[in-house]
Write a structure and sequence with these properties.
- By secondary structure, the protein is of the alpha+beta class.
- The protein contains 15 helices and 14 strands.
- The longest helix is centred in the middle third of the chain and has 21 residues.
- The structure holds thymidine-5'-triphosphate (TTP) and magnesium ion.
- Thymidine-5'-triphosphate (TTP) binds next to strand 1 and helix 1.
């Protein structure tokens, strides 16, 4: 049976949300990622900034050199999360089969939904209109018989576009496009293909399978299929996260121990708030440290009992941190903490009375934070972060907030 897959991706997502918060940014080159003299990279460049060669992943200092007139913003991650949740809710109204990828894109399997919602084209128009009306931002949508074709179509239609590839037209649609638009074709593969005289997908599709498998191994088979527009992968919800983590790069490399402990405590609280929200408890705690020279070390510890308590996970993380600090060889640029080894509620043993007390205390703290903001209630240890970071509704505004799970 021919499937019908829709791929939706928000345009210049972080910048688009910033423009809702501050409409005077419209029509201007805008970069979300940090101060132009900062140490980070571009997370999102507006289309006006892209005209100067700016793109995601470029060091901010390079971005500033190429486009000194751009407006550089640190960003508002809690707003991006809210917008992302609303976007995903809109999409989920049109099919139970949905697969979200990251923060601003998702696939919907619309096969067989025509009787309910109209043609895929009508559904796509409706989704675009609702995103504009409810979020004041634009999305690009691709429709095709596979995830591959739908994604390439939506990328091609950007910004604010809608491209539908009719069944049977897949190969002709892909043929003139450069090989790099295919998923999995990175710089290295692109270079090798160029050496073989192949720059377009049509040229790739003309190559014989044995030549591709000799050159690329199993990846060669995928290239052969994809170049013909064949992709049978199903639309399915992403597997539940196996870990939850938070990390941040410091404004400056540091060896300030009270600051490092405070940062660890704060990031642990963020991790545990999510853990409790998901109704999970964890057994394993992992600390990540990155030195100024980018060498990264991770240290893990397994707890005797599973827990979702800030206090217990912080104790474990602090233990790991103190050990690492005792032979710290230079200043640090990043700290992160993560938990894994989850169990759901039903696997819990009876909690002892001190665990129950912590449990009740943390629920009250969660309620207060949900109502009055994350920094409305703090332990003494994290108070010194006030001198380093401004706070916003959901916590401190870190230089590089991390959305990883
Ligand atoms: P993308 O959808 O890849 O990019 P985009 O929405 O900014 O632009 P486009 O119109 O081309 O879709 O990523 C979505 C958001 O994810 C982006 O706004 C910022 C964030 N992001 C990063 O933080 N770092 C990155 O390297 C990339 C690629 C994205
Ligand atoms: Mg996008």
């Amino acid at each position: 049976m021919v499937r019908c897959i829709l791929h939706a991706d928000l345009d210049a997502f972080f910048v688009s949300v910033e423009r809702v918060l501050n409409p005077s940014l419209r029509g201007k080159p805008v970069v979300v990622g940090g101060e132009p003299n900062g140490r980070g990279v571009v997370a999102c460049a507006s289309y006006e900034a892209r005209a100067f060669g700016l793109h995601a992943g470029m060091p901010l200092t390079t971005a500033y050199r190429l486009c000194p007139d751009a407006i550089f913003l640190t960003g508002h991650f809690s707003h991006y999360r809210d917008a992302s949740e609303k976007f995903m809710r809109i999409l989920s109204d049109y099919s139970p089969q949905m697969e979200s990828l990251g923060i601003d894109e998702a696939y919907l399997d619309l096969t067989g939904t025509e009787g309910l919602f109209g043609t895929p084209h009508q559904v796509a128009r409706r989704i675009k209109e609702r995103i504009k009306a409810e979020l004041s931002i634009t999305a690009s949508i691709g429709i095709g018989s596979s995830k591959l074709v739908a994604k390439v179509a939506s990328d091609l239609s950007k910004p604010d576009g809608l491209v539908e590839v009719a069944p049977g037209e897949e190969r002709a649609f892909l043929a003139p496009l450069p090989v790099a638009v295919l998923p999995g074709v990175g710089r290295q593969t692109e270079r090798v293909l160029k050496g073989m005289g192949v720059t377009t997908i049509g040229e790739l599709a003309a190559l014989l399978l044995p030549l591709l498998t000799d050159t690329f191994g199993v990846v060669g088979e995928a290239l052969h299929r994809h170049a013909r527009g064949i992709d049978r992968s199903p639309v399915e919800p992403p597997a539940p996260a196996q870990s939850i983590s938070r990390s941040t790069t410091f404004p400056e490399d540091t060896a300030d121990r009270p600051f490092l402990r405070a940062m660890l405590r704060y990031l642990t609280e963020r991790v545990c708030a999510e853990l409790r929200q998901e109704g999970k408890r964890a057994r394993c705690v992992t600390l990540t440290l990155r030195y100024a020279d980018f060498e990264t070390i991770t240290r893990s510890l397994t707890l005797r009992e599973v827990t979702d308590a800030d206090q217990v996970i912080f104790e474990a993380g602090l233990n790991l941190l103190e050990k690492a600090l005792s032979h710290m060889r230079e200043r640090l640029r990043l700290i992160g903490v993560g938990v894994s080894g989850f169990v759901g509620e039903w696997q819990l043993n009876m909690l002892d009375s001190s665990s129950l007390r912590l449990e009740r205390l943390n629920r009250v703290i969660d309620c207060l934070r949900n109502r009055y903001g994350f920094t409305s209630i703090q332990v003494g240890r994290t108070l010194l972060l006030r001198h380093f970071f401004p706070s916003e509704e959901r916590g401190y505004l870190l230089k590089t907030p991390c959305l990883s799970r």
